[in-house]
Amino acid sequence: MNTALIFSVPISSRKKTQAQEFCYAVFQNEHPDRYDLLNSSGNPGNFKTIRDCLSFSPFYISAMGLLTIKNLVFYGYHGVQDFEKELGGRFEVDIRIRYPFRRAADRDNLDKAIDYQQVYAVVEHMITQQKYHLIETLAEHIADRIANRFDVDEVTVVLRKNKVPINAVLDYVEVEVTRSGKTDD
After folding, report:
1. Is 13 helix (H, G, I), strand (E, B) or coil?
2. Which residue among 81, 88, 123, 150 is the one 20 to 30 A from 14 at the CA level?
3. What is the DSSP string of 81-92?
4. Which residues, 6+ apart, have CB-to-CB distance to 62 below 8 Å?
5. Which residue in the list 15, 161, 163, 182 is annotated as catalytic?
6. How far apart are CA 55 and CA 102, in angstroms?
7. CA 70, CA 96: separation in Å to the nearest integer?
8. Catalytic residue status for 163
9. What secondary structure letter does DSSP report for 91?
């Protein structure tokens, strides 16, 4: 999408991002026809804050990077049945973290990036040191911990349990949880 088609006013000298300019213009009713472009529910005008607008802005989304940590494998003791709690089982985890890569990439600085060794440590602790009846609870707690500990816009946790105590032929049971990161509001 070409920004010249979206903005009828020049980019301000305050050096806001394109997404911010776009959303400020929407809220100032300079582009009421653009609500439908941003609003995923199809109900124009229901953005309550600039941040709501930014989360749907095509500029904001394209500025985000996606870090994926795929198929972490751990042995844990989660389940409803006594033998699951005693014998344990194999759990596989995928983590997808959306955050603006530019903050780290501009200076090639790990301190501004998401350190995946630290993410790994969080997941490892939650699976190997905690015990839950449900994998839904475990996935929720992992997602919450990552969303609260790291500066992320969004985190998705996909958790697979390979051996489940049901009378069926299957590869695994999988749950997926997505959480938004910390907000400044």
Report:
1. coil
2. 150
3. SHHHHHH-EEEE
4. none
5. 161
6. 17
7. 8
8. no
9. E
Instruction: Give which of 20, 23, 22 is closest to 5, Cα–Cα.
Output: 22
Range from 15-24, 135-144, 165-174 carrying the lowest mean pLDDT: 15-24
Count of all residues that appear for the chain in the document: 185
Q: From 3.40.50.300, 3.40.630.30, 3.30.390.30, 3.30.1130.10, which CATH number describes the 64-180 domain?
A: 3.30.1130.10
pLDDT tens figures, 25-40: 655 655 444 444 444 4
> Computed over its alpha carbons, how large is the radius of gyration of the chain?
21
Residue type, 112: K
Domain range list for the chain: 17-62, 64-180
Instruction: For tokens 């699951």, name the residue.
Output: 84
Placement of tokens 């940590």 in the chain: 69
Q: What is the DSSP letter of 79?
A: -
Residue 135: per-residue pLDDT: 93
pLDDT for 86 beyond 70: yes
Token pair in block for residue 120: 């790994």
Place of tokens 């907000």: 183
| Token representation of residue 108 | 């090639």
Q: What token pair was written down for 163?
A: 């051996």
CA distances, 178 to each of 46, 87, 106, 110 (Å)? 22, 29, 28, 24
Euclidean distance between CA atoms 104 and 114, whole angstroms:
9
